[in-house]
Amino acid sequence: MSTAPIFRRVALIGFGLIGGSIARAARAQALASEIVTTARSEKTRARVTELNIVDRVLATNAEAVQDADLVILCIPVGACGPVTQEIAPHLKAGAIVSDVGSVKGAIVREMAPHLPANVHFVPAHPVAGTEHSGPDSGFAELFIDRWCILTPPDGTDPMAIEALGAFWAGMGAKVETMTPDHHDLVLAITSHLPHLIAYTIVGTADELAQVTSSEVIKFSAGGFRDFTRIAASDPTMWRDVFLNNKEAVLEMLGTFNEDLSKLTRAIRRGDGEALFEHFARTRAIRRGIVEIGQDSAAPDFGRPHPPLKKAE
Ligand code: NAP
Questions:
Q1: Which protein residue has the closest C-alpha to ligand 1 atom 23?
Q2: pLDDT tens digits for 210-237?
């Protein structure tokens, strides 16, 4: 990976899972001569100071972006518009302004109008994460072999796109560029809908009167617990994703409902052939994901299993 710093000063606005992981990875790979950060609350800022991962922790967004060559907003999608408005007068000419939001069309609509003409705007989405949040949750390896999608508006300086791409590649990510609308459609099916389904199933199980909640937890290894991991994701982040990618999610939800109706009909009619055909197709998709290295081939998602005790 990279050895020479790509940027002189990088400013991270927000220090949770993503901001904290960028700070740790950029520091480990020496991608910036200086990393400064800020967070909304005094509590988080104090914790980041204690962690001693960045060069300076500043009290305000305006102070943090001062003289920064790269500014990355690592905050919920819904907060990006107002924060951009706040930092705009303090940005250095020629700076690159980016974000990490899981939705891109709304980010461009909310951020671009506030930015001065003398900065480069290159929105980004690292397709990597966990269900944990906060300043302690980040880790330097989060982006290794994960995609980072850049969605620069038409006419963006290619040098700025290249520099941001090199920064993400330096943290181990594979970089791809696409339009914000295409990003939102792809992510609606690969990320947003799966989260919605997980939130639904976990909520439904919680409401079932015939099955006690202790049984749901006890027998969760039957598949339920894999949904609970996704459904434990940050409520603020996911509220903002669904509010800001409404059209694409509703379109995918329409297709999903049609497919669910087909499977419902096959079960009702006892159509084993239709069910088998469907499940064989989906099994092949899983194998494809493993083949391209996007998940481990280890059984049970690589969870450790204790050895069987020898009979006395
Ligand atoms: P996180 O761990 O909850 O951290 C969020 C950070 O944003 C905190 O520093 C928080 O400050 C700050 N913040 C929250 N609300 C704010 C507001 N209204 N104004 C200013 N700052 C605010 O979140 P995260 O998981 O890093 O997510 C950050 C962004 O990354 C989101 O846009 C999300 O879509 C995107 N993303 C997340 C994942 C994932 O899996 N988590 C993956 C890819 C992209 P305090 O700590 O002071 O409250």
A1: 16
A2: 778 788 888 888 889 899 999 999 999 9
Q: How far is the CA of 287 from the centre of ligand 1 (A)?
A: 32
Dist. CA 128 → ligand 1 center (Å): 13
What pLDDT is stored for residue 3 in this prediction? 60
Task: Say how far apart CA 14 and CA 306 lie, in whole Å.
Answer: 40
Give the atom of ligand 1 at the shortest distance from the alpha carbon of 41: 47
State whether residue 251 is helix, strand or coil: helix
Strands across the sheet with 7-13, in order? 56-57, 32-38, 7-13, 70-73, 96-99, 120-121
Q: Is 101 in the pocket of ligand 1 (CB under 6 A)?
A: yes
Listed in sequence order, the residues at least 6 apart from 52 whose beta carbon sits closer than 8 Å to its beta carbon are: none
Taken in order of first residue, the domains within the chain and their CATH numbers are 7-178 (3.40.50.720), 182-293 (1.10.3660.10)
Residue 76 CA to ligand 1 center (angstroms) comes to 5
- Contact assessment for residue 137 and residue 163, using Cβ atoms and an 8 Å cutoff: no
User: Residue 170: what residue type?
Assistant: G
